[in-house]
Amino acid sequence: MIEQYGWSDALQRDFAPFAAEGLSPARVVVQQRGLWRLVTAAGERTAVLAGRLRDAPDCPPVTGDWVAAELPAAEGPALIRAVLPRRTAFVRWAAGPAGGRQVVAANADVAFLAASLNADLSLRRLERYLALAYESGAEPAIVLTKADACPDVAAAVAEVEAIAFGVPVLPVSAVTGTGLDALAGWLAPGRTAVLLRSSGVGKSTLVNALAGAERMATRGIIEAGARGRHTTTHRELVRLPSGGLILDTPGMRELGLVDAEAGLSATFADLEALAAGCRFRDCGHAGEPGCAVGAAVEMGELPAQRLASWRKLQRELAHERRREDPLAREAERRRWAGIHKAGRARTRAKRDGWE
Distance between CA atoms of 271 and 290, rounded to whole angstroms? Predict the structure, then answer.
């Protein structure tokens, strides 16, 4: 059965040390708090973590993971002993004061970045998701849902393609069936796609349409803001009639970037190319002399909103680095202390009539 969920010869080789210990390969198909659902060669089993993994809460198995499990002959839960190395991983900062890195999906071949063709379509949010997808190692594809509700689909697709740079843009409608065949073409047998986007883009409706069954609960649109109500409450790996797999996740309104420098460079390849012509190698594109990026904005060759988005995401990455690096935090604290000290000195100088 695990072959139907993407098991391969390469995974079999990686699993050899665990097989020697008498463990069995399995894939996580549902992850909920404190409980996992596995698919094994003998069928599905409920599972819990072994003590060693319970003592490492920063890296529990997530939906899509391949694990080494102990399968007791008697009835009762399986025991997850180890997590196999991940080919791809989507990582974010966990919410709450504790923070820390959190893997939300693993071993996806393709990332469907879903955006709704209604009033909530945001190019800036798509840029964030593109950076995340590139950084994960999965192949990105943008899925524009609710095409039946859009008066000019071609114009919307062109607008998205202008920031996607070769990433496929697929308009679909779960209501009329438009584009579903093209989307299904990405889901060959054993191939895993992860569906990522903030709440309300019709992800559950889309999964149901691809699966040909009501696999996910759905709710309607809030008319005032054109936003859908979030319904998915857990992460589930769904096997489709085509043999492909799709990993549906709860809607994420905030998805922070973690170590996404390479992903950001790929997402803003146009800006990176322009930056090569700047006078200074460390140009921040904020009014420095000889800034090729600023010149492109002034000439209308680069949208000002795109540069603003790049700056915002760069600031976010710098902030996340400081969260993890005490030396970087201290350097930033000293930098701002110097800025404030200089500001106070200028204020005193003006007050005393020196300026």
Answer: 15
| 85 burial level (CB within 10 Å; 0-12, 13-18, 19+) | exposed
Q: 114 and 246 in contact (C-beta within 8 Å)?
A: no
Q: Which has the closest alpha carbon to 78: 29, 38, 33? A: 38
Q: What is residue 230's DSSP assignment?
A: P
CB 232 within 8 A of CB 204: yes
Question: How high is the mean pLDDT in each 10-residue block of the chain (355 residues)?
Answer: 92 94 94 88 90 68 94 85 91 64 88 83 89 91 90 93 92 89 90 79 74 51 38 71 82 61 90 92 89 94 93 84 57 50 57 58
Find how far residue 173's CA is from the centre of its chain: 22
What is the Cα–Cα distance from 33 to 27, expressed in whole angstroms? 17
Domain 261-349 has CATH 2.30.30.110: no
Instruction: Write the CATH number of the domain with boundaries 90-248.
Output: 3.40.50.300
Gap between the Cα atoms of 173 and 202, Å rounded: 9
3-state secondary structure of 116: strand
Question: Rg for the chain (alpha carbons), in Å?
Answer: 24
Token pair of 82 as six digits? 């180890």
Whole-model pTM above 0.90?
no
Percent helix / strand / coil, the chain, rounded to 5? 35, 20, 40
Q: Which CATH number fits domain 2-85: 3.20.20.70, 2.40.10.240, 2.40.50.140, 1.10.3290.10?
A: 2.40.50.140
